[in-house]
Amino acid sequence: MQAVRIHGRGGQGVVTAAELLSIAAFTDGKQAQAFPSFGSERMGAPVMAFCRIDKKTIRTRESVTHPDVIIVQDPTLLHHVDLFGGLSPSGYVLLNSRFSLDKIGLEEFLSSLPDGHVCTLAASDIGQKHLTRSIANTALLGGFAAMTGWITLKSVESAIRHKFPGALGEANAAAAREAYDWVIACLNEPGRGTPHARAN
Amino acid sequence: MLAQIEGSQAVAESVVLCRPEVIAAYPISPQTHIVERLSRMVKHGDVGRCQYLNVESEFAALSVLIGASATGARTYTATTSQGLLFMAEAVYNAAGLGLPIVMTIANRAVGAPINIWNDHSDSMALRDAGWVQLYAETNQEAADLHIQAFRLAEELSCPVMVCMDGYILTHAYEAVDMPAQSLVDAFLPPYSPVQVLDPKAPISIGAMVGPEAFTEVKYLAHHQYLRALALIPEVAGAFAQQFQRLSGGLCSPYRMEGASIAVVALGSVIGTIKEAIDELRLDGIAVGCVKIGCYRPFPMVQLRGTLEGVTRVIVVEKDLAVGMGGIVSADVRMALQGLPIPIHTVIAGLGGRSIPKSSLKQMVQDARAERLSEPHFLDLNRTVIDNELMRRRDQRQAGPMAEQVIRAVNAIGTKVV
Amino acid sequence: MPEQRIKFYQTGTYTAGNRLLNEEARTVQSRMDRTNSLNSGHRACQGCGEALGARYAVDAAMRAAHDRLIAVNATGCLEVFSSPYPESAWQIPWMHSVFGNAPAVASGVAAALRAKGREDVKVIAQGGDGATVDIGFGCLSGMFERNDDVLYLCYDNEAYMNTGIQRSGATPPFARTNTTQAVGETPGNLPSTGKNLPRIAMAHGIPYVATASVADLHDLEAKVTRAMAVQGARYLHIHVPCPLGWGSDPAHTIKVARMAVESGLFPLFEAQFGTVVDRMPIRHKVSVEQYLELQDRFKHLFGPPRNTDAIAAIQAIADANIATYGLTA
Predict the structure, then answer these.
(1) CB-based contact (8 Å) between C124 and chain B?
(2) B125 and B231 in one domain?
(3) Three-state secondary-structure class, residue C118
């Protein structure tokens, strides 16, 4: 079983991201369980959502305290929230930022994770481009598919279209696609070092 | 059709498959997603002539259904926590009048201190109101139980609560197989009331009954209610036949073959308990669990039959009878009366506290080693308790306890609990 | 039903006889085919204003609904004296749930009828002043604002009589009840308290609000009939003296009710969508003193020593009503 924890702020679509992730996994024929951090938080407050993915039925209902993947939708949480608490030593981190890890000051902190397991992605910029709003969640899902390979891009797109029918879904799917391609390219060229993102 | 959907959506769709005629609801977290969805479907015209009433309180919600049900309509509402207690008078009244209303309880703690997260304090507080209480383990079961609930309610002329863990189930996305309308129609015939307000045949419902007949009326209600113990397995059986899936029932054992320790619980925590049991079994500990699917009426005989072979019972319950201990365990004790089986009460998951598999495994080990206090509070932060007790001993104007404890545990919203 | 305003004023019994009217203008109650919805044999006290008001109101509603009527009842005197098992006095489908929810239960009945396509069946809800202005107020306001198709009848006897005469939000200033006793600095109910439910009902903008009194049963029936012709939430507030609670002679129920109207303390009016459209002018004005004197609950005002300030304060309320509603003929 793999567990994903998504961090963001109220209003950024954190819960929706977990839902979409579970639907994508379901579409890929896996079992999935997504749930929010059950908070009473308002817009702008730190929130979390979780997703478990497995080949067999998921029975446990406990919180995700030891995630295999951490997705950070809002980098401004870095100094407020214990974002990486409990992360598996072989886990993954996907950060929404247009800056590289060293610029954010996380390079050393995350250096123990395996190669190709940490990536920054300018997801808000991608969202801005496709949705004219800096919504990062669907782009990050594309990035997640690229980084982990646990779900297919096709299923991510289909989950997005299912949730947002019409033009909005297409725009979100395009954001996910661009992010996917970007992360794939990034992982294939470790030294690329663009100002937008960098993979370790 | 199998779909990856939120528990609340699954329940709402399941309720719609039952063709309700009047729905009245008042919003309260975490029930809202269910009623939002229903209001949309009704307004969209997906539910025939069904009426959806936005009312001013939970008390009004259930009162509307009392009137509607007595007029022969199939009725539904959902609530939780404070809302359930706010409608308490009507909860008793609906049962006393024998009205087959179905209500989802998105289980949540009862304040003060105010807490919107899951435990079973709400439905437990009204366990003796005369409603059948069913508890769902998964969202699939929650969806299925609603279809069974309408059939049960209408066959018994008795209201039914379907309890599902707030947030843990209501807000969880998982795969749920939504049945076809034709199958539900075949399983659940149209509502044919035993009493109805009709100008063609006027009756008085809710008349005053004095000491000369009250006992008899109550006896008959009790008698009628106990029929649920026979009917629930029957309905679950019919459901399995129709939908090719096991859901509901009075109590369900898991790995109880050769078990010397049994963990008894209700609701979604059963899933985590099963995971813990599988691991404990690998370690050679003979432990199993029993899910109580129907808590009221209490399946006394069935539970005794399932548990009488074990040497130890641990009741894990998400509630607390303040000044007393466990609520469910008191009933389990009664079911096992006369048997030399030690019964432990473990209070867990209050106000949304996560119940980790690791803690459950430790609990079983502690029980075997006679290390459980009675009642035992799972994962209690003893340091906070001791400090606060000391502070209160030394200070008369000690202030609100909840505030002090929050300061002490520094429970900022971002902490993973 | 055509209606004729009675142009005479009787002394003596103070009741307007049907025989003085042409046949169409006579009350529903005087007809052989009245439905006796609240049948005789119930257990109300002698001289009960509520039993009288309910009998007239419900029969009139039945006639207007072509006998297709469902009644919901709050807990209270009416419910208790009419329903002790197995001797229900109700000849119509009737339901009692609890004290505070009659409007919501009625909304539910109406919703069920809508769901079943049975809009030909009409719904009334009834309660005393406690059930209406106090404990059921939330449900009533909800029923109003949703404009549910229910006629709500409040039988106002100005206190909790079923439980033994305790103050309600409809108890008038200075009245003695068992929870506003005639002791202390301000004996009786405190002035400047209580609520005016007809005005609150009007503030909801519902299609029909009216007040009526058992002193004028023609008017009461006519208002029920008009209310029944309207779709949506309707409210009729009926003044019903309680000989037990008011300490008045059971033989004087109509007289006391009439004095309340003619002093100006209980103005009779009709309102549509929040605006007063008609009122019943006072034809024979009396002082509040004449009304108060008939009731033991105000006995402490007459001393010794006589509480002239209190009597003046009550007179001021009556005068204000007369001015507000234009009750001078």
Answers:
(1) no
(2) yes
(3) coil
Domains of chain C: 30-325 (3.40.50.970)
On whether any CB of chain C is under 8 Å from the CB of B235, the answer is no
Interface contact B416-A85, CB threshold 8 A = yes
CB contact under 8 A, B271 and A59: yes
d(CA A125, CA A136): 8
CA distance B146 to B184: 11
Sheet holding C69-73, edge to edge: B204-205, C94-96, C69-73, C122-128, C151-156, C234-239, C208-213, C269-272, C275-279
Q: Would you say residue B221 lies in a domain?
A: yes
User: Which of B243, B261, B293 is a domain's end point?
Assistant: B243
A170 pLDDT more than 80: yes
Q: What are the C-alpha distances in Å from B245 to residues B104, B140, B180?
A: 21, 10, 14
- From chain B, the residues in CB contact with A81 under 8 A are 414
Complex ipTM more than 0.90, yes or no: yes
Q: Which domains does chain A have, with CATH numbers?
A: 2-188 (3.40.920.10)
Q: CB of C238 within 8 A of CB of C153?
A: yes
Taking 50 as the pLDDT cut, the residues of chain C under it are 10-14
Domain of residue B259: give its range: 251-377
Inter-CA distances, C313 with A93, A96, C291, C310, Å: 77, 73, 14, 5
- For chain B, the residues whose C-beta falls within 8 A of a C-beta of chain A are 4, 6, 29-30, 116-118, 165, 167-168, 171-175, 268-269, 271-272, 274-275, 352, 354-357, 413-417
Would you tell me which residues 84-113 of chain A have a C-beta closer than 8 angstroms to some C-beta of chain B?
85-86
Same domain, B109 and B212: yes
Interface membership of B385 toward C (CB under 8 Å): no
Give the span between the Cα atoms of B53 and B40, in whole angstroms: 12
Dihedral sign for Cα A56, B13, B149, B267, please: positive
In order, the DSSP letters of C256-276 are HHHHHHHHTSS--EEEETTEE
Question: Could you tell me which chain B residue has the CA closest to the CA of C148?
Answer: B53
Q: Taking a C-beta distance cutoff of 8 angstroms, is the pair B133, B127 a contact?
A: yes
Domain match, B291 and B181 both: no
For an interface test with B, the pick among C43, C62, C107, C123 (most B C-beta atoms closer than 10 Å) comes out as C107
Residue A79: what pLDDT?
Answer: 83
Q: Is A194's pLDDT higher than 70?
A: no
Residue of C nearest to B211 (CA): C85
Mean of pLDDT values over B372-387: 94
Q: Give pLDDT tens digits for C75-91.
A: 999 999 999 878 899 99
B120 and B261 together in one domain: no
Give residues 40 to 79 of B whose Cβ lies within 8 Å of C. Answer: 48-51, 53-57, 59-61, 63-73, 75
The separation between the first and the last C-alpha atoms of chain B, rounded to the nearest angstrom, is 34
- The count of domains in chain B is 3
